[in-house]
Design goal:
About 25% of the residues lie in helices and about 25% in strands. It is α+β, with helices and mostly antiparallel strands. It has a six-stranded mixed β-sheet. A three-stranded mixed β-sheet has the order 1-16-19, with helices on one face. A hairpin with a 5-residue loop joins strand 13 and strand 14.
Length: about 375
């Protein structure tokens, strides 16, 4: 964050920097902070790139050394996609009452003592602001992983990559009520994603984020238990350590962002996202609907993007956007000063159809 001119009074500087913010524990950010998104600041309010619905990865033919002829790599039409950013802005205030029990005589304090007193009051306000902002950003990232970045307040659409690219999200069905066919359906899912991928480098793995009720059925499916029992029979320690066979497959593991359950089937990682988002009106939102799941491609460089526009102030015009701005005003009306946290993001997938919408039959 460093130190930036105060937007409301250029003669003053804010005192909230990265070192302060990084000390605040994070509750949300499993995907936003995972490194999955390529994050960059941009100098404009909009972002554009070229999109082609067809793959350019094709073989050509042999050419003549003497005629200096060459194949044109792509003959498909491309279109320009332009995205407009959005804004999340949170405010709080340090008021007279926040300082009254810390200081007997404000006028007797030297500038350093005043700054320390104010910093202590600000430090008490920042955690709640940061938790709200972390939740906003994680919700935006999580929904963008499914092709459409949504508004944390009401779930309305902010950036619809399926609409702007004119593409349709891939779908897949896995029947967990049948005694067989689950492994074949998982293999089919992998093949479907591989055949459809255009953007990003070749992925190194597929993560499928599923609802808790899906995981419970998957973890106890007889075909999968029998598969791992046969595959690991006679392998000694590997057999003992297999969560499928030692009963630990249903355990929840504590992570920095809450409890999760994870299992791997033929290289595909199934995982839960048990944290709930809370909207402004107090209602809770599940990350994944009952009976549903979606794919996340690991290692596909460039597929997941996050662009951050500069803050909409004259002093920031033409500067490169930051992931977050945190700043404070001078004292207002001799009664309080305000603290602001804001971000102006665009989270998106360059090929949104690769977020496969998976429906699990569980009953």
């Amino acid at each position: 964050m460093a130190i930036y001119p105060n937007k409301l009074d250029p003669r003053t500087l804010i005192t909230i920097d990265d070192a302060v913010l990084q000390e605040i524990p994070g509750q949300f950010g499993r995907f936003d902070n995972s490194g999955l998104f390529s994050k960059d600041g941009i100098t404009t309010q909009d972002y554009g790139f070229q999109y082609s619905a067809l793959t350019n990865d094709k073989m050509t033919g042999a050419t003549s050394r003497l005629e200096r002829d060459a194949w044109k790599v792509s003959q498909e039409k491309k279109k320009r996609v332009t995205l407009s950013g959005t804004s999340f802005k949170i405010t709080d205030a340090v008021q007279y009452e926040d300082l009254a029990f810390r200081v007997n005589d404000w006028q007797s304090l030297d500038p350093v003592a005043r700054e320390m007193t104010v910093a202590e009051a600000v430090a008490e306000k920042l955690p709640a602001m940061m938790r709200a902002m972390q939740q906003n950003k994680e919700y935006a990232a999580l929904t963008a992983l499914q092709g459409v970045m949504k508004d944390p307040e009401d779930g309305s659409t902010l950036v619809d990559m399926l609409a702007v690219t004119g593409s349709a999200r891939l779908t897949h069905t896995i029947d967990l009520t049948a005694s067989t066919g689950v492994i074949a359906a998982i293999t089919e899912l992998v093949n479907k994603v591989q055949a459809a991928q255009v953007y990003g480098s070749g992925f190194t793995g597929i993560e499928v984020v599923v609802a808790d009720d899906v995981f419970a059925k998957l973890a106890n499916h007889p075909e999968l238990v029998a598969f791992y029992e046969a595959a690991l029979s006679g392998t000694g320690q590997a057999y003992i350590n297999s969560p499928w066979l030692n009963g630990r497959v249903n355990e929840k593991n504590r992570s920095i962002y809450g409890f999760v359950q994870t299992l791997v089937v033929n290289g595909v990682t199934f995982t839960t996202y048990s944290q709930k988002f809370k909207r402004w009106n107090g209602s809770s939102v599940d990350a994944v609907a009952s009976g549903k799941g979606f794919t996340v491609l690991q290692g596909a460089t460039g597929l997941y993007q996050a662009k951050f526009s500069p803050a909409p102030y004259i002093s920031m015009l033409g500067s490169r956007g930051q992931e977050m701005y945190v700043w404070q005003t001078p004292v207002k009306d001799d009664t309080h000063f305000e603290i602001y946290a804001e971000t102006h993001p665009m989270y998106f997938m360059q090929q949104p159809e690769l977020s496969v919408d998976i429906t699990f039959t569980i009953a």
